[in-house]
Design goal:
The protein has 425 residues and is of the alpha+beta class. The chain has one domain (6-235, 335-422): Anthranilate synthase (4-Layer Sandwich). Helix content is 31%, strand content 32%. The chain contains eleven helices and 19 strands. The protein has a 19-stranded antiparallel sheet that branches.
Amino acid sequence: MTLSKRKSTTYPFKIDPYRFIEQNQGCVSLLNSNSNNKHNILAWGVEKELKLTQSEGAFDKLKFFQSEVQDWMIGYLSYDLKNDVEQLVSKNEDKMEFPILHFYVPQLLIEVHKEFTKVDSLIKFPQEHIDEMMLKAKSPYKLKRTGEVDILFHGLDENEYLSHFSKLAAHIQKGDIYEVNFCMQFFRNEIQIDPIATYLRLNEQTQAPFSVFYRNEEHYILCGSPERFLKKEGNRILSQPIKGTIRRGEDEEEDALLKEQLRNDPKEQGENVMIVDLVRNDLSRIANKGSVVVDELFGVHSFKSVHQLISSITCTVDESKHPVDIIRAAFPMGSMTGAPKISALQIIEENENFKRGVYSGAFGYFDPSGNFDFNVVIRSILYNERKKVLSFPVGGAITALANGPDEYHECILKAKAMKKALQNN
């Protein structure tokens, strides 16, 4: 049973999405592409939602929900939904207490273009109310600036990290796994932040194509992700795993040298190709026979603070394949797990000391036709306003060629943007 039809209104001006978020309470998501060529999407208000706290049967419930509403759906899948895909458990401490899955049908879907704003709203939503909301959001959001504060976050120190690294390297030597993504959590309790201002500072640091601001009750996701997990457009599926990271140079000459260093690094290439093989295997479960293709291998993509090694894998699927079943076949994503995947998931659970939750899950949308686009939730700050707790996990892939201190310092590099974004709170 579908929900009410939508009406579309175009306004001859651009609203400020942050001003809109500040003025209008309730559930809201901003999908920010950070591109002059693409519009940003605001999804505000809950018409209908699916919110789960347990993993058992979660994908089947999501499948039923998507089939029932056949409308825009915005939301996230937590990493720990792995337990619904395979016979696995999550016993580590959950400090953030987010729902394991949340999707909602927005009352307003707002496209913020460069020179105009388009609103798709449920027909029953009063037009005069929409007009008022848009006019109020024309004025710019005023970023609150405060003095920098050095915030101490609790995480693994280098010696603790190297102890875990040794255990993981032993698993690799024994042949239990040949790649694993090991993560550590930077955490702080008794902390209050301004989520909008923090997100803006994070976005200044990352300028990522799959950036997200999400607020629902006390839960906030401030995401600067450069990575796409999975996209469906018609019968074509695209996955773009990231494996391989290096900092940006101080000048153009150093920057070019670092790009070539990343492109030709055997260790980074080894990490990347292992995950490409894993993604190919995942997609083969739902793909039309012979359609899985690696369109780009070891592509170097540059972001504001880092260069990344990204590969692109595509396939086609039968039109009868349900979109949720496509996501389930590839979840959780190989770039954040390892290979073989199930062994890596078990070893991750034994070695990490926190429940990943939303981190290394996926945030995105379904459209009314069943197309979808989801990121990988990395380079992200998770905040529980009620509990006054905050975390930003980081991680990286470990293989037989990995060096412990180098892997630790790569994690510190990845944490830099989140730390800087939080220094003004």
